């Protein structure tokens, strides 16, 4: 059916109009109609999916389908890292035929490709968690060769994470769940080393989907920039010699089992984790700001109201920038509310800086009523403090004076010897 047809069926079943659905998604009705027709690939965020699910009263299976079409997974991490971007989703799928997945910092599975689901179907279960599966599931003990070594590696990772973030409630809850298993608890109590990741580990596994063939794989662990606190993991199948002493890459078999992290490694990881957390917060802020800065309202009056009570209408510049444009300057927030009519009773509203509007003004529109409105924009683009604004204006004037002096000097030189400045004359002179 496609997502558009599915969306149309849900909307009609709920008795909701296209206009109301579009407003709930923060988009114009014209854009929404295209989605229902299938002309525009949908890229709804988690927030938009939740808004749509509430409006159309979707049941559990329908919500699942909505998330799969738009986010690429129905798993929502408890820590808030729930949205896997479309570009990252594409990268996961492009790892085929290698299994690949994304997990959060607590090893909750956020997304995976079809090879991962085929080799290890547990990733499709609600609340799937890598370390919980590896340490407590009976099938993991069959699939990992030398399971005790792998269990020790995962316990090292848990202890490293705990040393890095000792007050992490979700991490402590995961550890408590794992310790309910007697074997896992024994390993927890007897392993005292730490390890950060399984990046570069070469090991053997028995894979049910391959008729229980034993394969040798390499684990690659990366941190995607769009989700800095998450892990992007690719499992590469490598062909190696039948050698119990050396792995497929020529290293000592299971050499990773003897590695351990130090307190210095913990301190470094804490700094890196803080940097990734700061980057993740900045990334979320940028996304939320971009989403919040664009809204859809019914009337131009509602759009103007977003500029607050201390606002200045800009009708002359509005008419210059488009027949269906309304600009309103907010003096308190020092932004311009730019509203554009997309359809009847549908005004798309974006908040932009005064400098953005100034840059869009045509050269011939700096006279009469437009000039007075430009004065308001220029003042709003300057510091609010009069002394600071004066200093900035003087700096700008000095810069313009220097530019004009240089241009006048070049102009005088060009007019004084036009033939010498000509490329053709210069070429002729060089030939002689």
Q: Explain this structure to me?
A:
- This protein has 20 helices and 10 strands.
- 52% of the residues lie in helices and 14% in strands.
- Strand 4 (213-222) and strand 5 form a beta hairpin.
- Helix 4 packs antiparallel against helix 5 (60-70).
- The protein is an alpha+beta fold and 432 residues long.
- Mean pLDDT is 81; it is low at 73-82, 285-292 and 425-432.
- The protein has 4 domains: 1-70, lambda repressor-like DNA-binding domains (434 Repressor (Amino-terminal Domain), Orthogonal Bundle), CATH 1.10.260.40; 79-277, Beta-Lactamase; 294-381, no CATH class; 392-431.
- It has a 5-stranded antiparallel sheet with strand order 2-1-5-4-3.
Pick out its properties.
disordered C terminus; 5-stranded antiparallel sheet; elongated; 432 residues; Beta-Lactamase; 434 Repressor (Amino-terminal Domain); alpha+beta
Structural class: alpha+beta
- CATH topology description of the largest domain: Beta-Lactamase
Tell me, rounded to a whole number, the average pLDDT: 81
The helix content, as a percent range, equals: 40-55%
Overall CATH class of the largest domain: Alpha Beta
For the sheet with most strands, the description reads: 5 strands, antiparallel
Order of H and E elements:
HHHHHHEEHHHHHHEEEHEHEHEEEHHHHH
Helices, by number, come to 20
Rg calc: 31 Å
- Which band does the percent of strand residues land in? 5-15%
Low-confidence stretches are: 73-82, 285-292, 425-432
Question: Strand order within the widest sheet?
Answer: 2-1-5-4-3
Number of domains: 4
